[in-house]
Automatic annotation (TrEMBL):
InterPro entries: GATase_2_dom (IPR017932), Ntn_hydrolases_N (IPR029055). This is Glutamine amidotransferase class-II. Keywords: Glutamine amidotransferase, Transferase. It holds the Pfam family GATase_6. The keyword Transferase applies. One of its GO terms (molecular function) is transferase activity. Residues 14-261 form the Glutamine amidotransferase type-2 domain.
Length: 317
């Protein structure tokens, strides 16, 4: 079941949030508090389902499929918990908070169903996708042309029905910047992404393709965070003891690899021209934004627009 589709394209927006800890941080509980508050705030961008992936920091080399429909599973290198409904319903502090306090990386997602089933956990993020080097775990906000992506990269049949799975399948095993960008440039539609290579859990990959917003922030203890709305970081600052040194909206067409040692830092970066469809540019992209935040982001948009009937050849704005 897909909600809010217009002209074959979903108008729904999911929420991304996450944390990359600094090994030097003196108060891990503060960053954990910030992560949980970000999850609560992300409910405004999706309440069909929610989930988190908490990593141990241990590299994994065994390629083994992880059941996408599992609501709570401890896999080699991480624990993935997800369920139907709001983040506040899925989050279990008695069981998960001790893990979060120790996790060097945490990925969170709140879902408003676009492609795939609204009720199926197999389509809820974060998703674990198998592949070379044990695969990746990631989350996506947006709506892209999954069938075209599967055809272009000869992807295997998905275990779920979401475009998120297709994107992650295309990214699995790609570690060179040029190889990652090849996939990101092939996306047609809205997309923001966060993922971790299970064989290299000391780094996080973030990307903003067309439209779907993504903000990166760093606090005064050098922990790094990401989220779908800049306002959420102002809310976190008001209701926790975390102080942010910076919060920056990524421009469209930005890919970052962020390593955690000795402190979180950008270890690789690339820019590309993302492609959207005419129907993708709508106010729902900035759901929950203040008018000022929305206007600043709109002024910086730089995607190409694929004209109807032009296949994969976009026309620049």
């Amino acid at each position: 079941m897909n909600r809010g589709r217009r002209g074959g394209v979903s108008t729904g927006m999911c929420g991304l949030f996450g944390l990359l800890r600094s090994p030097a941080a003196a108060h891990p509980e503060k960053a954990s508090d910030a992560f949980v508050v970000l999850g609560m705030l992300a409910e405004e961008r999706g309440d069909d389902s929610a989930g988190v992936a908490l990593f141990t920091g241990r590299p994994v080399t065994r390629d083994a499929p992880v059941p996408l429909e599992a609501g709570d599973i401890s896999v080699d290198g991480c624990r993935i918990v997800k369920g139907r409904g709001r983040f506040s319903r899925v989050w279990r502090p008695d069981l998960l908070l001790p893990l979060l306090d120790c996790a060097p990386v945490a990925i969170g997602h709140t879902r408003r169903a676009t492609q795939g089933g609204r009720e199926r956990l197999a389509d809820a993020g974060p998703l674990a996708v198998p592949g070379p080097g044990a695969g990746i775990v990631g989350a996506h906000n947006g709506d892209v042309e999954a069938a075209a992506l599967r055809e272009r990269f000869a992807l295997p049949r998905g275990r779920g029905g979401s475009d998120s799975e297709a994107i992650l399948q295309a990214l699995v095993g790609r570690r060179e910047v040029a190889a990652v960008v090849e996939v990101l440039q092939a996306l047609v539609g809205r997309a923001a992404l966060a993922w971790v290579d299970r064989a290299r859990p000391d780094r996080v990959h973030l990307a903003r393709a067309a439209l779907s917003p993504l903000v990166v922030a760093i606090d005064t203890e050098q922990n790094m965070y990401w989220a779908s709305n800049p306002r959420w970081f102002r809310e976190v600052r008001r209701c926790t003891s975390v102080e942010f040194a910076s919060a920056v909206m990524l421009r469209e067409g930005t890919y970052l690899e962020i390593s955690c040692t000795p402190v979180p830092h950008i270890s690789a970066r690339a820019e590309f021209v993302p492609t959207a469809r005419p129907c993708d540019l709508e106010e729902g992209v900035w759901e929950g934004f203040t008018a000022a935040d929305r206007d600043r982001d709109r002024a910086e948009l730089r995607h190409a627009v694929r004209k109807s009937g032009t296949g994969g050849f976009p026309a620049l704005r």
